[in-house]
Amino acid sequence: MTADVPEPEAGTPEPEDELKRKFREALDRKRQSQAEGNAAGRSKDASKIHGAHGPAASKRSFRRKSGG
To answer: The pTM is what?
Structure first.
């Protein structure tokens, strides 16, 4: 069964492989730019509102209403 499927030539890259290569290169560029930003002291949270994504100031407590 596998003898019927023609093997691609070693010199011609498949379009799928080319696409994977492009995505991998783009991901490498993205990781490189993030690493440079972290090395420069830029924090991971680039939000203009500081502390908006952190933990809550205090834990919320829920009390059950009494019956009377």
So the answer is: 0.40
